[in-house]
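Researcher: Here's my situation. A collaborator sent me these components and asked whether they could plausibly form a single complex. I don't have experimental data yet, so a predicted model of the whole assembly would be a useful starting point for our discussion.
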Amino acid sequence: MLAVLKKEFKTYFITPVGYIFMGLFLLIAGITFTTGNVFSMSEDYANGTLSGLIIVFVLAIPLLTMRIYTEEQRQKTEQLLLTAPVPTWQVVLGKFFAACLLFGLTLVVTVIFPVILSFHGRMEWAVIIGSYIGFFLLGCAFTSIGVFVSSLTESQASAAIITLFLVLITWMIDFIAGYMPQSNLSGIIFAAAIAVILGLLVYNSSRNLTVSGLVILGGLLIAGAILLIRREVFTSLITKSLNWFSLTSRFYNFPRGILKLSDIVYYLSFCGFFVYLTSRKIEKKRWS
Amino acid sequence: MIKAENLTKSYGRHLAVDNISFSIEKGEVIGFLGPNGAGKSTTMNMMCGCLAPTEGKITINGIDIMDEPEETRKYVGYLPEQPPLYFEMTVTEYLKFVGELKKVPKKQIKEDIDRIVNLVKIADVKHRLIRNLSKGYKQRVGIAQALMGNPPILVLDEPSVGLDPKQIIEIRNLINELKKDHTLIISSHILPEISAVCDRVLIINKGVIVASDTPENLSRRLTGSDKVYLRIRGDEAAVREALSGITSGDRITVAPCQDEDALEVTLEAEGEEDIREKVFFALSGGRLPLLQMRPLEMSLEDIFLNLTTVEENA
């Protein structure tokens, strides 16, 4: 795993990608800081400047991950990784960590901004450190999406575009959630749809009609039971679920100085899930 | 050392490798020979753990490679059809990465690189970017990569494809060098390529092993005339009588010809002698007109026609 991490990290700086990513990100961060904090004499770093940088990162994320697996497939080097005495998940994790490391380092450089501010005013360091942790976790979650997408295609361009699209969608979820129907009925339909989708997924992987039928039936029964016991669960269920899944809405706790374990666990398991998906995708090649 | 049992691989409906079994002893040099798309690369990919067999199993030193993939992959160095090179690295950087990936101890990585670089003769390019190397050098870097960690088994998929005759000879010498302390499995679609270095040849066609023998035996079977096909005008009893001096009756089959008024006869010698002259004199002695005579083993010959491209005086 360490070998892959080292190799990927080095590759960022052998190719121009690392420089472009760091350079552009820091340039925009610098501009935001100068205009938002220095010129407007504002001390609001965590909530204003740093949170504003997320959108920059969202746009830059494809740069970080687009080549991470596409190049292995294109140069046929993945056979080397597949035949190495290393489990696939470790290879994927190595690649993922390399991207996170580069992103983390870039983030560390921006610590210089609050340090400058601290000469001229009182900074709430707890809040700032909290925001940095949040930003880093959010960034890792986005990166894990990017790593997964790059395992799907051989073309860097499509990997970049799909990643950008997916990350923007997750970014927009909060916004979309507000427009979802709020009624009980819509909640029930939503729950039923999830049960059916789960059933179809089970059918897709097992080709077993009985089991997938049972999954759908079980899901519907549970939904029905909840409907009888606690009807209010279904009120605006769609919005609630989307908000729960939203990566960004969880982030806004951090600049407020709230460091919730559940948020951290959510981000880490989100990353874990996509790393797992990626290694499944790679493993699948052995069986196709 | 390596044992494959009832190996099958299908891609959807397409059967790439169909129920093949073989075993390879320590120190052997095995050649996989077959036309393009015969299933050579698929078989090799399965041996290296790159692909999982649809059915059947492969064991290395008695361990099933699907049970302990990480452990068994340490024993195998693999050069895929297309060498897995990172173009943006230098040769040394690349070999170091491969060493680390294969979990070779740090001290040994350095020793290995020094040794291998001299062995495959890439010492003069070791600080150059792989991107800028010629095809022959890239191929050798690919072999160097397989040698990292000094695995006892080497699997080389078409090591000399796309090289010029001089480079082919160099690779062949290299293989002869590697033979001393590795079990080698090499694939090719060129017969002389394989027969020059291998102890045993497995001929694969359409996913099935059609022959497995030493190169000498195979070439004899190719040119062999101990089994002949004849087309004779006459009646069966006379033909059998005339040929009875050459071989015993049960080695002669006679059937009416479908194209013309004649008999189709196949004849197999008892020993490994050339019987064609005897056949001619026996038939002319019996005044039986011989319309056609050709050595059999055509099936193998046909395969070889597909397989072997003439090698220019390399």
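Model: Some features of this prediction you could bring to your collaborator: Chain B touches chain A at residues 11, 45, 48-52, 69-71, 73-74, 76, 78, 80, 82, 84-89, 93, 97-98, 100-103, 145 (CB under 8 Å). Residues 306-314 of chain B have pLDDT under 50 and may be disordered.
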